[in-house]
Amino acid sequence: MSYAQRGRLGRMLLYIPLVGLALIALFPLYWVFVTSLQLPSYQNEEMESPVSYVESVPPKLYPYGITEYWSQWDKKRDAEKLGDEQAASFHAEKMQEVVAKTFTTYSYLFKSTDVLKWLWNTTYIAILGTFGTVLFDTMAGYVLAKKQFPGRMLVFWLIIATMMIPDQVTLVPSFMIVRLLDLFDTHWAVILPGLAGAFGVFLMRQFMIAVPSELLEAAKIDGAGEWRTFRTIVIPMAAPAMAALGIFSFVGLWNSFLWPIIVINDSKMLTLTAGLKTLQDANLSSFKLLMTGAAVAAVPIMIYFLLFQRYFVKGLTVGGVKE
Amino acid sequence: MKTEMTAQEAGGRISSPASWLKTWKKIGPAYLFLLPKLLLFGLFTVLPVGWTFLLSFQEYEIFDSHWIGLRNYAEAFRNEIFTGALWNTFRYTIVTVPLSILTALIIASLVFPLGHRSQTFFRASFYLPVVTSTVIVAMVWRWIFNYRFGLLNHVVGIFGMQPVDWLGQTDLALWSLMLMNVLIPPGSGILLYLAAMGSVNPSLFEAARIDGASAFQIWRKITVPLLKPTTFYLLILSMIGAFQVFTEIVMMTGGGPGNATETVVHVIYKTGFRDFEYGMASAQSVILFIIIMFIAVFQYKMLGDEGVERHKKRRNK
């Protein structure tokens, strides 16, 4: 915008480094998907399992099945032209084989590991945790900003004081509390501590201060109860901040790693990130299998991001620049 | 508003049941709204923080814990793995944070002049790898670094060099992790910088251009100084983040080879949950906490009145 007069040439010049940088940025993700879809070349045909897959040297930069499929399709068309029914159906079969082989690691992963269970666990933990965080933090933030009551400043200062303390610092006692409450190896052990953070309350409180008190007074005069005022006035007013908080809570919960690997042991109970760790520990060098797991874990959050991209930008600035 | 409240509170202090009820009606709902958060916050944040400190002065056994004063701390600093981890984490932070922020600034400056659509596209490209879990990113990079099949050694081979054992060499492994960190785009930084650039008054640039300043001069003399608050904010946030580096270590090196890539949080994790030395792990946590607080206070000093003052002075010159 501000460089508009510099003309089109200047702008085109900006694209060259940017496209290069974007390629570097996106390449690892691309590589996950390419590898997961790569045509297997086995060390030993008898051991036809994705675990015995051997990486090709030099690495192929796109799923090689595309080339194979295309050449088979070509041959099939030639055979059809010549009227060779038998050859045509042979190549059609080959084409199907290529497709099947391309996705073989996926079917292996879904059949032989708990990945779908992990996906489900992560999804509902992230949804429940996000919902709880947004609701409780909004309630608390509202009260801290708009109500007077004994102990208000104490709570506020506790929140400020603990905001800078990273979760890693309190790992051991948090684990002991989880043990004491008999929550080890349950999803509550992941969800409940996730609802305890200070940042969300702080964010909501800062946001609520800007909500005009007259509106709340008016609602009270109209005879609305506390909960109703909260639902019909506070929540709509706070929606942008709630959206920001929700967006980031969800990603945070989805990607959280250190805590789940500590409090969950049972493979069926794991979250995706923790599950990927066990997958890697068990198959250290089957990169194709690992990349397939990574792809399964990456797709949902990528879709989530692309859907809510706008809110990410807003959310970051609500939480960041305003401070 | 405030005076009205004190009147109410004063009314509550006359201890007749009716006025108690009145006070409760006034403030009771506030407590109810606060209750769920307060319970969780108390149980999983305040209590563990306090407990960490207590544990750090104890030799912890399930039925027989006893106080040992500062011995855990003394031992932590005598433990070469922990001090090595401190040093590694420090180096990691010092190298990666400035580079990431510089990358963010450069990329944001390149993206900012573009049209709306291109901006959206590049923002997404640079943020997508950040949304994706570090676990996944670490898994790919473990392969990219792989000695036999890895992409990086293939690239190195094209230039006629011998393959490198990126993660397997004691003197190289940490640098490989730093390289990886620098090549992952600093998505949040880019987004924050873009937002900050958007809030700068365009007439500032206009005036500079009329005065005959070149694009680079404008960037150097106007854009970068105006972005200073964002830069400081990012600096502190990234430093705190880098000091907690953990996932990459677990997924890629496990702290090895030897202890070459051991970091503070990884040592805490191992001490606490592999060796079950809760007291020692807590002492190490408190040390981490003090370092992070130090960074935070430093931020406050720089960003607080003093920093603003200094900033103003420079502008007046």
TrEMBL record, chain A:
Keywords: Cell membrane, Membrane, Transmembrane, Transmembrane helix, Transport. Pfam families: BPD_transp_1. It is found in: Cell membrane. Coiled coil: none annotated. Its main location: membrane. The lineage of its organism: Bacteria, Bacillati, Bacillota, Bacilli, Bacillales. This is ABC transporter permease. The chain crosses the membrane at residues 12-33, 124-145, 154-181, 187-204, 238-264, 284-307. Residues 119-308 form the ABC transmembrane type-1 domain. GO terms for biological process: transmembrane transport. It is a multi-pass membrane protein. Belongs to the binding-protein-dependent transport system permease family. PANTHER family: ABC TRANSPORTER PERMEASE PROTEIN MG189-RELATED, ABC TRANSPORTER PERMEASE PROTEIN MG189-RELATED-RELATED. One of its GO terms (cellular component) is plasma membrane.
